[in-house]
Specification:
- There is one protein chain.
- With 60 residues, this protein is an all-alpha fold.
- It has one domain (15-59).
- Helices cover 53% and strands 0% of the residues.
- The longest helix has 21 residues, at 39-59.
- It starts with 20 loop residues before the first helix and ends with a helix.
- The relative contact order is 0.12.
């Protein structure tokens, strides 16, 4: 989903510009701006670690 065509009810400006706090909150909600690690990344890291552990046990 994109906020390109959304208009803010508070300031009547494009949400993508983030002119007011309402615009910025709506834009953050649409784009899910977060700096945390995604679930998929954690799952991929765990899978790689499990495969490495399995490979290490088969080599010895």
């Amino acid at each position: 989903m994109s906020c390109e065509h959304l208009i803010c009810a508070q300031c009547a400006g494009p949400v993508s510009e983030g002119r007011c706090p309402t615009c910025r909150e709506a834009r953050a909600h649409v784009h899910h701006e977060s700096h945390g690690i995604s679930v998929q990344l954690v799952a991929a890291i765990l899978l790689v670690l499990a495969l490495l552990a399995l490979a290490a046990t088969h080599l010895h």
